[in-house]
């Protein structure tokens, strides 16, 4: 009976293609995201008029970026505390992009996840989508003995959110069109936290930012973190990564 049950569960899981782009320039990753996102949205639109629908694909992308600051469509440019000369000195790029949220930093040692999912395959609730991504990170941190949670009124994953020493370890910002998602989360594993001093992270000027490395007092194997996080995302979304 157990084997039949397992086979049934696998048959009912959504197959999601996992892609690891490694260390990649932000603009290149954005272009590749937009291509996958645009193809999926176009296919969904086409399916509305075709007698036989073609199944839309789903992707989970992991990567790291070279130093870059990105400003969401509802963000405030003044939250970047560097001018062009300062950006050059930090060897950092700056982009205004089409996700939600304010300004954030991406760089080496930070695990960035871009789920490009057709939420019609999972659930059509963007708030539940965000909470589920947060939960996957919270469970990953628990694997390392770190208790994390949420900060009321904000997206992302926090440590000691109910205390003065509240600090953010993972930021979220997504775009969704026709229930297809892009952009995603940025999880500080071994990130250089000094780069956050050049912005008001996510527009929050009275809270700290942290990393897994800082909390554990040692550098962490990012490949190991990827495997743990992949597992939690797959379980929570009931997906099969292929």
Describe the protein's topology.
Blueprint: H1 2-12, E1 14-24, H2 26-47, E2 59-65, E3 68-71, H3 84-89, E4 93-96, E5 103-106, E6 110-116, H4 126-143, E7 157-159, E8 167-177, E9 180-188, E10 208-209, H5 212-216, H6 222-237, E11 239-241
Parallel strand pairs: 1-2, 1-11, 3-4, 8-10
Antiparallel strand pairs: 2-6, 3-5, 6-9, 7-8, 8-9
Helix pairs in contact: 4-6
Brief overview:
By secondary structure, the protein is an alpha/beta fold. The chain contains 6 helices and 11 strands.
In DSSP terms, counting alpha (H) and pi (I) runs of 4 or more, how many helices?
Answer: 6
Proportion in β-strands: 25-35%
Low-confidence stretches: none
Structural class: alpha/beta
Mean pLDDT: 92
CA radius of gyration is 18 Å
Number of strands: 11
Outline type: globular
SSE order: HEHEEHEEEHEEEEHHE
Helix content: 25-40%
- N/C terminus separation: 25 Å
The biggest sheet, with number of strands, parallel, antiparallel or mixed sense and barrel status, is: 8 strands, mixed
Task: Write a structural description.
- With 242 residues, the protein is an alpha/beta fold.
- The chain is 32% helix and 27% strand.
- It has six helices and eleven strands.
- It has helices at residues 2-12, 26-47, 84-89, 126-143, 212-216, 222-237, and strands at residues 14-24, 59-65, 68-71, 93-96, 103-106, 110-116, 157-159, 167-177, 180-188, 208-209, 239-241.
- The strands form two sheets. Strands 1, 2, 6, 7, 8, 9, 10 and 11 form an eight-stranded mixed beta sheet that branches.
- A hairpin with a 2-residue loop joins strand 8 and strand 9.
- Helix 4 crosses helix 6 (222-237).
- The radius of gyration is 18 Å and the shape is globular.
